[in-house]
Amino acid sequence: MDDFARNLGQESDLSDEAPGISTAKDATAPLKKLLQEEASIEQLHGLKSIILDKLNGKRRLQLVALEEEYSKVHQLVEQTIVAGEGNSMLVIGARGSGKSNLVETVISDLSSQHKKDFHVVRLSGFIHTDDKLALREIWRQLGHEMEVEDDTMGRTGNYADTLSSLLALLSHPAELAANDPDHVANSVIFIMDEFDLFTSHPRQTLLYNLFDVAQSRKAPIAVIGLTTKIDVAESLEKRVKSRFSHRSVHLALPKSLAAFWEICKGALIVEEEDVIDVDGPLADCISKQNEDGLSILSSWELFVDGLWRNDWIFKHVIQSIFYRSKSVKEVFATCLIPIAELSPDMIPTGKDFAQHALLAPESKLHILEGLSDLDLSLLIAAARLDIVLDTDTCNFNMAYDEYQTMASRVKVQSSASGAAAIGAGSKIWGREVSLGAWEKLAQYELIVPAIGATSTTGGATGAGGGNGTRDVGRMGRMFRVDVGLEEIVPSVPNMSHMMSKWCKEI
């Protein structure tokens, strides 16, 4: 797929390489001219700060092609705040599709009109790994916003009391307004990131109580779950599912390169509204224009547009990410270093974006060069079993038996020729030491657990000593080798002749 993207980029732009580079340089001319002034250099630092905040997720981005999804979420939250309704909804989409940005945009827009009418509680399944931690965080956030005494939490230290106090706080907000039927109590909006992880909590007590409060109209709360799992509703227990409203919004990744670029461009440019809450020289640059009638914001936008239209290297970087993963966050990571180094003397080009990409390697082959001889020997042994036994799974016992066979053969051949055994075959490591090396390969994900495979002792089991069933499980667990035998030799430049021979001769 990456080759397809590369060919596409070359076919569409490479023929115009020379004119494109010339035009790209012309696009930087107004920006460089504007930055020659000392005051504009200070503005550039402010400009760079805003863009970096966008790339790092500290600032919201403009929504692109999400009007319908925005309307649904906005209507639900607005009804909770204005009419006191209890609601629940799931926002489902792949990572980088804009779920958090969408919900935070809705909250921000409603805050401008109803800032004092609702509270927001933000939870994350990655951080709040059980209901007790989540309850404490809810109490902390609500206690801070509702000005509840901190020592109340200390008096209700156990889980049951904390839950009861929290439900009392949420379930009876209208008692103070019992004589005023038109009064609507302050609403609470729960934003639960990684919602699918909350469904794995025992008995789903927190979800049950939140959905119950929302459904029974005990309090005006809205529960919004953000998840990447499209079937997350099936993970809810029956009693929890019966209280969930089954409303959902699905966010798709950009379907076209043009839409993908619009999202990326939104993070690379600075709009006038982005500067409103900024102090310093940048706040004055909106109205300040040079002799050509351009401000630093418009000059920067022209520069970004010029990169996309005329710099084929920059365009190829964006195209390759789109056709490979459609990951907006991957583009943001690619842009971090060039933007951080932005200065009047260092205006980034497509080459800078291509060379300074903060991306994870596309494969794990770079790890092989740092493995010990024992690690590498076991990996080769496991990879050989794929061919020798015609199976795509193996366990430690099977790999260790193959390692022993290979190393013993080397010793016999060396003794027959009168030469001392050298390299990894000079010593056959014990089973316990080798098991540690095998588990290290699993940590590096060079071998991955086989789905649906059951543990088996495989090979020889008597050498395990008296370690009992615990070691049988560790040694018998089935793995799949994630590296091909033919990939190992090119990835390890200084591999010994003997191990190289193991990879080539079956």
What's the quick description here?
The chain is an alpha/beta fold. It has helices at residues 2-13, 17-35, 38-55, 67-82, 99-114, 131-146, 151-155, 159-171, 195-198, 205-215, 238-241, 257-268, 296-310, 312-324, 328-340, 350-355, 373-388, 396-417, 431-443, 468-476, 485-491, 497-504; strands at 87-93, 118-124, 187-193, 221-227, 248-251, 447-449, 479-481. The chain has a five-stranded parallel sheet, with helices on both faces. It has a two-stranded antiparallel sheet with strand order 6-7.
Task: Describe the 3D structure.
The protein has 506 residues and is of the alpha/beta class. The chain contains 22 helices and 7 strands. The protein has helices at residues 2-13, 17-35, 38-55, 67-82, 99-114, 131-146, 151-155, 159-171, 195-198, 205-215, 238-241, 257-268, 296-310, 312-324, 328-340, 350-355, 373-388, 396-417, 431-443, 468-476, 485-491, 497-504, and strands at residues 87-93, 118-124, 187-193, 221-227, 248-251, 447-449, 479-481. The strands form 2 sheets. It has a 5-stranded parallel sheet, sandwiched between helices. The chain has a two-stranded antiparallel ribbon with strand order 6-7. Helix 1 (2-13) packs antiparallel against helix 14, helix 3 packs antiparallel against helix 15 (328-340) and helix 6 crosses helix 8. The protein is flat and about 90 Å long.
